[in-house]
Design brief:
By secondary structure, this protein is mainly α. The chain is built from six helices and no strands. The longest helix is centred in the C-terminal third of the chain and has 51 residues. Helix 2 runs parallel beside helix 5. The two termini are about 50 Å apart.
């Protein structure tokens, strides 16, 4: 299954769920749709249109911010009047916008944290390999180290050495 066909199926499934939600749970869908407005804004400005990293970060934190208000709606009788009362509550908007802000923070900070972690992990592994190389050199001598001169005297067949340079062609 290709990526495009998978995305097409997800869109169709999302549309079916949205229509079913409008038909069977209009108050819930009203609160959710108004609460996900910051996600729509993030989706509009997402620089990665295929992977949608920003949209996913904002959607997940925004959905988490809406959840208590959806439960409040369900506990209170699940009426459209109650949904309008919840939507008009400034606490909902503060919570929703703070949830979206947390998604933006995740989007801005996590790639840098992961990059720093990966860089430090590779520096650590390089240090271990250099220590191992030093141990081998003390055991076997300096002949293990590749030559640093530009003339490839040891490579007479024209095969590239470890630095990518090739010797005389035969």
């Amino acid at each position: 299954m290709t990526q495009d066909s998978l995305q097409k199926r997800i869109r169709i499934l999302g549309g079916v769920i949205f229509v079913a939600g409008l038909v069977f749970a209009l108050p819930t869908m009203t609160v959710v749709c108004f609460g996900l407005i910051p996600t729509l804004a993030a989706s509009a400005v997402d620089p990665y249109k295929r992977s949608r990293y920003l949209s996913i970060c904002v959607f997940s934190t925004n959905l988490a911010a809406i959840t208590p208000f959806v439960f409040q709606l369900w506990d209170g009788g699940h009426t459209f009047t109650q949904a309008v009362d919840i939507i008009s509550d400034p606490v909902l908007w503060l919570t929703v916008l703070c949830g979206a802000a947390v998604g933006w923070i995740f989007y801005g900070i996590f790639p840098r944290l992961i990059a720093a972690y990966v860089i430090n992990m590779w520096k650590y592994k390089i240090g271990i390999l250099e220590k191992h190389q030093q141990k081998l050199m003390t055991t076997w001598g300096e002949d293990l180290r590749p030559s640093t001169d530009d003339s490839s005297e040891n490579d007479e067949r024209g095969v590239a050495d470890s630095r990518g340079k090739s010797g005389p062609a035969s």
